[in-house]
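Bit of a strange request maybe. I'm writing a small parser for structure token strings and I need a real example to test against, not something I typed by hand. Could someone generate the tokens for this chain?
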Amino acid sequence: MLTLLQVIILGIVQGITEWLPISSSGHLVIFQQLFGLQVPVFFDVLLHLGTLAVIFVFFWKDILKLLKALVRRDFNSEYGRLLIFIVIGSVPTALIGILFHEILVSFFSNLLVVGIALISTGTLLLLCEDRENDKKLTLKDSLLIGLAQGLAIIPGISRSGATIGTGLLRGINREKVTRFSFLLSIPAIIGAGIFESRNVDWSTVEWFPVIVGVVVSGIFGYFSLKLLLKFVQERKLRWFSWYCWVIGVGLIIWVI
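Reply from user aminoacidic:
Good idea to test on real output. This should exercise your parser:
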């Protein structure tokens, strides 16, 4: 059973690392191992709901325009096309999450996998920074970014790092791919929450610590996202490469 202090710590870790390209799930695995905790995957998913609220705070104007395009069935406008790309990008994410669910869940107790994944994240961040162009988002781009988001279910693969990095490698403008990355996370997080809640006995859930964890993750997630947007704008994503490499190599040495 998690104590209130442990829930708060996990909420802080989730909030800080959710949007920074250093993998929130990877860090949750690390902290859970350090505390010797047996935390169900659905608890991690619920913590993501706190940081999901941050997306609505930062991108509410874009979300409203997407909804208007949907209601009007205006799929030829900028936001109508963006809505289609979000749907298309969500398909590979959903397929990976459903088809490889058992394997992916097993990774959440494997620090070796987390270490290797963090090194991979750091490498992507280093390679993508100077590949930006002014290319527009295409159908193929949305599929590839959605595939990257699906792979980011692996703890240690940063969702924001994988999606933004893939978009930059494809030559997409950094502001456009960053917006797409975060909007694409909405159906992914909601879908994961629904999927993981299927077999949960909600009558046994202690809601007070869960709510505390969600609120804490949301508060810290707000400042985390604000910081990431600044780093993206200032072309400093590669700064996180060194962090990912150090933690990744440290985990591998620790496990071996």
